[in-house]
Design a protein that fits this description.
Order of helices and strands of chain A: EEEEEHEEEEEH
Number of domains of chain A: 1
Number of strands of chain B: 16
CATH class of the largest domain in chain B: Alpha Beta
Oligomer: heterodimer
Shape of chain A: globular
Largest sheet of chain A: 5 strands, mixed
Number of domains of chain B: 4
Strand order of the largest sheet of chain B: 2-4-5-7-6
Largest sheet of chain B: 5 strands, mixed
Structural class of chain A: mainly beta
Strand order of the largest sheet of chain A: 8-1-2-10-9
Number of strands of chain A: 10
CATH class of chain A: Mainly Beta
CATH topology of chain A: OB fold (Dihydrolipoamide Acetyltransferase, E2P)
Radius of gyration of chain A: 14 Å
Strand content of chain A: over 45%
Radius of gyration of chain B: 29 Å
Strand content of chain B: 15-25%
Number of helices of chain B: 20
CATH architecture of the largest domain in chain B: 2-Layer Sandwich
Shape of chain B: globular
CATH superfamily of chain A: CheA-289, Domain 4
Distance between the termini of chain B: 34 Å
């Protein structure tokens, strides 16, 4: 399958490419209070609102972010919409069909940790809100 | 009661029925013995009669009454329709259309020769009609004016997306030279962009639909369900002219289907049982839409047997391990909300038959997603009422937009009583000043407090439920302005914070988070 690869928290992460809706640049994220620190805010893109998540922070990395990230990876699936801020976008690569939680290796020996939007959503759902 | 408002609703809704009536009667002419069709025709005339009676429009309700007499007989098979009888009904429907139009202009006559002629004909048996000063030709109706078209909702979405992309193009505009600026190009571009933003706002209004159209989607399912469960059920609508976001209603489609299914399967009793309890054989489900403040309040009520409270008690005892004393000490609202628990329906097989547990958690989740709230009222033998209060959905509202710390926030203008400069009000000493910085977790070092927003207290929906009054005054760093916002539901994650009424999009494309002051 085609796999979209990006870097965050010092890791290469891969998402099945069919989940990727757009890569938005030049967007301004509106910060929202009372949300977990990895939730950077929201953006309005082509008629939809996307929650924007700093993947590094979601994975436990600390640090301050700009409210003008270079890129936001937009995903749409079922009725959900999520934007991910990576540290760097690596590109699309082909990997043999892999289970969602597997680590796969490219021909060059690069380790890619596969993640799914549902898994990210589940992790987000477990965080505290409203404080 | 605002009679004019109800008259407008009557004209709008009966217009729709009359339009369908013509089509049905033409079908009836070719399918005289189709009793289900006569039942539909009867239902439409009956609905117009009901509304006309409520407004004391005697000529309209009288004519409807005469027309439905025949339809009832055709529907029941006690009389057989013929072409002449259908013609009389068509003439009657045409006359009805004229009376409704005259009502709109405030000139509805109480009597006319045509009304007398049709009434005299309808007083006879349809199979033994004696013409009454029969006209040479029957009125030939003209096709109605085309004032509506149907479009796919996805087209509207695409148009909105496209218009936003065009607006976003401004960000890629190369820097203008001094010469270009002096030639007026900058002014021209600004004007052009302002026009585009206005267009985008108008396009957004295409997403609004009358609630009546939403409720009409359930006419057939309600009829089918009633037939399957051997119930007699009538679905009524109040406030159908309210315009709401189609995206919001789409999300409520499944939950409402659950509500109606439960009302018919478990709420409304069998006709004989209803009769024994002194009720009419026909059960009634009323769908009411209302705007209170800036909330949309949707109420679904039925006059059935009410929620089975013994089933709830059984669940609380069996599954939740509660004692009888604990159960009786539960607040009423909390007790009834038990039916919203995920495992309520599967807790006990008898609940499936006796209670209202099927899929109620689906409704609760959908409402939570939309940042709404649900109140349940139910009395044994009297019926059940679900009151769904939804925050501002996609629509254009005016709001006071302000900055506080790094956040751009807003409250609907209608909630704001006044805005004062902070230094003029000795803000820091105000005892009732709500500390929004603290609530939102903003570092106090950045506090500027330039203005104080004083809020109106919103009307309580249900006085019987004691609630904390929302904050009445709070300070902000800067007021951006009073401006129209296109408001969208805030989504699942923001809803978890439980403090937002939606997300507002400003004309320049920037976002502002609408605070729900009642929930902060």
């Amino acid at each position: 399958m085609d796999c979209f690869v990006f870097e965050a928290a010092g890791k290469h992460l891969g998402i099945e490419a069919r989940y990727i809706y757009r890569i938005a640049d030049e967007v301004r994220v509106a910060p929202v209070p009372l949300l977990p620190s990895c939730h950077v805010g929201i953006i309005y893109y082509r008629g939809d609102l996307f929650d924007v998540i700093d993947v590094g922070r979601l994975l436990g990395k600390e640090g301050r972010l700009s409210d003008k990230p270079s890129y936001v990876i937009l995903m749409k699936w079922d009725q959900r919409k999520l934007g991910l801020i990576p540290e760097r976008i690596a590109g699309i690569t082909w990997v043999e069909d892999a289970k969602a939680t597997d680590t796969v290796f490219t021909k060059d020996g690069l380790a890619i940790h596969m993640i799914t939007p549902e898994k990210i959503w589940d992790t987000l759902s477990e965080l505290p809100y409203g404080h | 009661m605002d009679i004019d408002k109800y008259k407008r609703i009557f004209i709008q809704e009966s217009g729709k029925y009359l339009q369908d009536l013509n089509t049905d009667l033409i079908r009836g002419e070719h399918d005289l013995l189709n009793r289900s069709l006569w039942s539909d025709i009867h239902g439409k005339i009956h609905s117009i009669k009901g509304m006309a009676r409520a407004l004391n429009l005697d000529a309209v309700s009288g004519l409807c009454h005469s027309l439905e007499g025949w339809c009832k007989e055709f529907q029941g098979g006690t009389m057989t329709p013929n072409a002449d009888a259908v013609q009389v009904l068509m003439d009657g429907a045409e006359l009805l259309k004229g009376l409704v139009a005259a009502t709109a202009e405030g000139t509805a006559p109480e009597a006319s020769p045509q009304l007398d002629r049709i009434s005299a004909l309808l007083a006879q048996r349809p199979d033994k009609l004696i013409p009454q000063t029969q006209p040479d030709t029957h009125p030939v109706s003209s096709p109605s004016k085309i004032d509506h078209i149907r479009v796919e909702y996805s087209l509207i979405e695409e148009l909105l997306a496209r218009s936003q992309e065009i607006i976003l193009l401004e960000k890629t505009l190369p820097p203008l030279s001094q010469e270009q600026i002096s030639s007026g190009l900058r002014g021209w571009i600004d004007h052009y962009m302002a026009m585009l933003r206005g267009l985008h706002f108008q396009l957004a209004r295409l997403r609004l639909m009358p609630v009546q159209d939403f409720v009409s989607l359930f006419d057939k399912p309600v009829r089918d369900l009633a037939r399957n469960y051997h119930r007699e059920v009538r679905l009524e609508m109040v406030g159908g002219e309210l315009q709401v976001d189609i995206g919001l209603m789409e999300r409520l489609r499944e939950p409402f289907m659950h509500l109606l299914r439960n009302a018919i399967a478990h709420g409304i009793e069998l006709p004989d049982e209803r009769e024994r309890s002194g009720k009419s054989r026909e059960g009634k489900i009323v769908f009411e839409a209302d705007k209170r403040g800036d909330s949309l309040v949707l109420t679904v009520s039925d006059d059935g047997r009410g929620i089975d409270q013994t089933a709830i008690q059984r669940y609380l005892r069996g599954t939740m391990g509660m004692s009888d004393q604990e159960i009786s000490g539960m607040p009423r609202e909390e007790f009834l909300h038990t039916i919203l628990r995920v495992d309520y329906s599967s807790a006990d097989a008898t609940n499936q038959l006796a209670g209202r547990g099927i899929g109620m958690d689906v409704i609760a989740k959908a409402i939570q997603y939309l940042s709404g709230s649900l109140a349940i009222q139910s009395e044994p033998l009297e019926g059940t009422q679900f009151v769904i209060k939804l925050p501002l959905s996609l629509s254009i509202v005016y709001a006071i937009v302000f900055k506080i710390g790094p956040y751009t926030l807003s409250v609907p203008t209608s909630h704001v009583a006044s805005i004062e400069r902070a230094e003029a009000t000795s803000a820091e000493q105000g005892g009732d000043l709500y500390d929004l910085w603290d609530r939102l977790g903003i570092h106090p070092g950045t506090r500027k407090s330039t203005h104080i927003l004083k809020l109106r207290q919103p009307p309580a929906i249900d006085d019987s439920i004691p609630t904390e009054p929302p904050p009445s005054r709070f300070a902000v760093d800067a007021v951006i302005g009073n401006m129209p916002l296109m408001v969208m539901p805030s989504g699942e994650l923001l809803a978890r914070a439980g403090s937002f009424a939606g997300v507002g999009i400003m004309e320049n494309g920037d976002l502002s988070i609408l605070l729900d002051m009642e929930k902060l």
